[in-house]
Amino acid sequence: MALVDPKELSARESERVEWKENVADCDDVVRTVVAFANDISNLGGGYVVCDAAEGKDEAGFRKIFLSGLTSARFKEVENRVR
C-alpha cells in the first residue's frame, strides 16, 4: 500500500480529493466515499479530508484550515461508512 502525504491532500481539492468542512451529516461522507469507490472515470478512487475548511491566509492566498475530528467522532464516521 502506498503512503499518502496529508500535506498533498490538503493542497487543493480535485477529482480525487474532497474536503468536508462539516461532518455533522455522516451520510454526506458516505455518499462521497461511494462515489470514489464506483470510480467511473477510472482515476483510482479518492480521499475524503474531514473537518477541512477553505479560507484565505494573511496575504489573501487560498489556505486550508484543518480542525480535525475527535477520536469518538472519527469512529462514528468510520463505522457509518463501513
Q: What do these coordinates show?
A:
It is a single chain. This protein is α+β, with helices and mostly antiparallel strands. Strand 1, helix 2 and strand 2 form a beta-alpha-beta unit. The protein is globular, with a radius of gyration of 13 Å.
Q: How many individual β-strands?
A: 4
| Whole-angstrom Rg | 13 Å
Distance between the amino and carboxyl termini: 20 Å
Fraction of residues in β-strands: 15-25%
Counting helices, strands and paired strands, the structural category is alpha+beta
Mean pLDDT: 81
Order of helices and strands: HEHEEEH
Strands ordered across the widest β-sheet: 1-2
How many domains would you count in the coordinates?
A: 1
* Total number of helices: 3
**Main beta-sheet annotation:** 2 strands, parallel
Specify the helix fraction band. 25-40%
Q: Spans of 5+ residues with little confidence (pLDDT < 50)?
A: none
Envelope shape: globular
List keywords for this structure.
about 80 residues; 4 strands; alpha+beta
Short structural summary:
This protein has helices at 6-9, 26-38, 71-81; strands at residues 17-20, 47-50, 52-56, 62-66. It has 82 residues and is α+β, with helices and mostly antiparallel strands.
Secondary-structure map:
Blueprint: H1 6-9, E1 17-20, H2 26-38, E2 47-50, E3 52-56, E4 62-66, H3 71-81
Parallel strand pairs: 1-2
Antiparallel strand pairs: 3-4
Helix pairs in contact: 2-3
